[in-house]
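Field: COMPLEX_INPUT
Field: COMPONENT_COUNT = two
Field: RESIDUE_TOTAL = 1219
Field: MODE = joint
Values follow.
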Amino acid sequence: MKLFAIAVASAVGLSAIATTQSVTEVEPVGTITGTVTLEPPPPPRRASRARAYDGRSGLIQQLPSVVYVSGPLGGVAAAQNVVMTQRDTAFAPGVVAIPVGGTVSFPNEDSFFHNVFSYSEAKRLDLGRYPQGDSKDVLFDQVGVVELFCEAHDQMRGAVIVTENPFHSVVAEDGSFTIAGVPAGEHTVVFWSADHRPEERTVTVTDGGTSQIEVELKR
Amino acid sequence: MISIRESFAAKLLSAFLGTVGLLLILTVVSVRVVTGRQLQSETALTIVDANRLFDERAAVQRESLARLSSSFTTSRRAVSALDAAIKDVDIDYMAGNVEYELLLQQVEAAVVVFTDEVGQPVLSIINGERITEGDPVGVVETAEELLIEDADMFSVYGYRLVDGMVYNVETVFLGLGPRPVGTVTFGLPVAPEDLAPPMGDSEGGLSRRQFEACLFFDGSCALRTDGVAPDLESAMLASVSAVEPLRVDADDEEWSVQASALSEVGAENAQRVVAVRLGPVLAPFESIINALLLSGLAALGLAVVFGRVLSRNLTAPVRALVDATGRVARGDYDASVQIASRDEMGKLAHAFNDMTVRIREREQLRAVLNKVVSKEVAEELMSGDVELGGELREMSVLFADIRGFTPLTEGMEPQAVIALLNECMEELAAAVDEVAGVVDKYIGDELMAVFGAPNVQPDHAFRAVCAAVRMREGIDALNRRRSERGEGAVGVGIGIASGTAVAGNMGSTDRMNYTVLGSVVNLAARLTSAAQAGEIIISEHTRSAAGSACITTSLGGRALKGFSSEIDVYAVEGLDRSKTRSAETAVHRAVRSFAPFLLGGALAVSGMAGHVALASAQWPTLRDAGVGYLSDDGRYQIDLSGQLDLEAFYFSDDEDGLSGLAYGSGALFAPRARLFLDVFLGDHVYGLVEWRGDRGEAPTADFWEARVEQAYISVGSASGAFQLQGGIFTNPFGSYANRHLTVVDPFVRPPLLYDYRTVVSRRWSPAGADWFLRWRDNPDEWRRDGAPPVWGVPYQWGGMVTGEIGIFRARFAGMNSAPSSEPIDWYEFDVVEQLSWVARVEATISPELTLGASYNDGPYTRTDIPNAPEFPLAGTTYDQRLWGFDFAFARGPAMIRGEFVHDSWDVPNVDYPAVDVGYSLEVQTDVAAGWSIAARAGRLDFRPLGMMGDWDWDTNRFEASVAYRITRNGGVLASWGTTWDNGPLDPDDDLLGVRLWWAF
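Field: COMPLEX_OUTPUT
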């Protein structure tokens, strides 16, 4: 547990340093901030029969939304290692965003088997079943959203957002987000949410300025 | 050709043929009725079986579908693959995966369709063929329904027709969390084996299966069993629009075809049609009918031959007798018949010959008598009881004397004198006859006539005067004829006297003479002497008695020889014709002029009489209306009658805490109408058909149900001591009065509310149970008497023998009913396969007291319900036995009846039978004109059954009724009944009934 915390902290720290470095060294940068509103989910269905997939749909792991700037920007970020733990029958964190070429480790911390798989075109993977303590690494070499599931546990869901640049933000629970150090200029910003339709916005970032975007995602 | 009406031989022959023919027709009709019932129930059962089979197979297939879709959707793989495929527009990758999965699952000939989140198919796989365009299976609509936000279901079953094959499909919602991703549809083909078991799988593995089936989609056959030929298929299609089962001929077989709609999704216009083979059901009945017809034809042939021979032999003497009788009728008393045989005909001929001899003697006597005395006197003498003695009568005596007879006949030949005398006397006697007088005697040239004796004639004086006037006219006419012949005229003097005289037979016992004696006779003779030729002299008495129609002239008083004082005498001039006419026709005229009033009065009186009759004697009947036939000799009779019962019930049935069964409270109108056709053929053959319309056999039945209730034929021996009966009739066991709980069926309960079928008492005995001739002899004791309607219980078919020796009468019957008291066994009675046996012996100890004992043994479970889980006894027969004693004591208008019934029936898994005993006592009596009351108390007691305890709660019942007979054939009845048991909550059920009945 401790080890994992350190790993996350270091990863976040490294990315922060990298961002700061690029801002000071290369060109003028600004901040993109705003809020994402999500259309509320439909009412849960009443199960008609006692069957495996019935009635569980409401129990699926809820994932935070992610805002990221699309397109190659400011050079390719250094390859990073990110950890997505399987803990308490859930992916933790549920969503990670990594630059293309990054690797994500999937350690199993539960006392039972998990089996991570994805049919997303950006990365089709099936890690097979593995027990507590094991971890498997996956290299994400294609831009796109990779939705992850566990073969053994229906309610588990995660996503890896493979981006072309380091500018992204996981939306907070209150819907707010901030992406700092975005190079000035006109950019396309993508808003992703697991259960909503993705939206794109064009935003102009000025040096030292803050661009505000309000987005509502529809189901 | 001799018409039937005139020929005894033809009558005999037609009676023979009619008996055989009617017997045949009734039997065939009975068999037909039973066939119809059997066919109906078999067909219904087979269709139920077929539909159940189909439903079971569909359920099994759905389970397979559920397993399939479950295995596909247990993990997130399928849904995430679909999600990814839709998002990434890469169907091929997923299709490959799906095909691989199907391969793993070993699913063949299957349909798989995936749709996206708006219901559009993205991938269809039909039997391995991958289709990514369009909606070849037709799932869009169902998918859309599943995908709408507030749908409360996850899957929908249904049928699809794809490439000519019918699939059982399930469409399942696929979602990721709250987000719909799409749907997947799986389909498995429906095979002919799902419609009907394959050949060789049916009972015994040998026969063809009982039915064929077909699935129609939008009017064309999508799936059929292998026995469906094209013409059967078109007949099946025709049945789709029919409500009732169709009976059709197709493929050289008979079928009953019924369609039922499939209501599932995708099969809105689909029908499942079942065609039941009737051959196996009909075959035994057909062979019975064939055998019946063959034997019937043979019997008819024999009847013709025997009838002809017999009738010829029988009628030859009859014809001879008819001949001879005709001759006698024409006055030929010499007719005689020669018949050699010593049988009844010979005796008859002998008697006939004796008779003609006697008639001949008598006629000779009559002829002689007629010549010497008057007709009336002759009649009286011929009638035999002639005695000496006389009686005093009011009468008139007339003498007519030929005047100057001696000078007239002087010199005439004696023959000519007699001829003249006869000519005159004939004329005179004719006048006497004309007014119904009596010529008493001829005295030489004188005639004496009497009026008012021997027959009483109140107008004797008038008649005598009329006769005298007619004599005068007759003599005048005679004289005219004589003068034409050149002969001399004859004169007649007439005298009439009236009064009281003695009339009678006088003389010795050897030789008697009817005559009159008295002064009236003397007076008349004296008056005649006083009369001149052509004169009519009458006494005062005669004049006043004859009335004003006589025109008379007073001749004053005359001294007559033998009379001390002078007598007032009158000469008759003539008759006042107008007055005469009016006197003669006074009554007629009165009738004529008052006819309208009389007619009106008669109508009024008869109307009142009719009204009175309606209120007191009898309501109209079919017999009154002339319906029916009765042969001249009374031995052949066809009688149509009926009874209408308008009955309303109010019932109150508290909820039973144990069974929870209760009808609550409420009212029920339960009218019933019955029509009886009685046929009597001679003294030995009787047939009855009863049609009945009522609410049906169960209280839940439709408001009206009509059926043939009884149809049987009885043949009895000459003495009536032995009788055979066959057809549909009531069980002769006896009363079951105690054996029904209101909780089962509270409505089927006459006459004391709870009776429903045979009752032991002869007085209450319904149609089938009693010796039929009793009915004809004593119709008042029977159903015309308002005997209890027996209703609501299906009668059974069977055969019965009744025999009577001394005071004992015994019956033995085999019937197709269960002895059970369970109503369900009556409703389904015709599926009881084995016969039950009923025996009953009655002893008439005295005219008042009858004792009876009954025994009934038979199966009470049905053996042909296959694998019905709700019927654990299916396939096994369990017996039920009843025995009982009863007595009936009737004296005058009162009757007491009691019975004891012991009932035992086998119970699965228990070594000894369950037992109940029922007993009851009943009293009926007439209390006043038209009023009668009845009451019954009874109890049904269940014996403990080992560890199981009592089988049911003991039940007590009390019933009472009051009846008033408005007319001989109609009345009202009010009744009340209550039952209570000894169960923990001890509910009681009450039933209140009011009935108006009319036997017509």
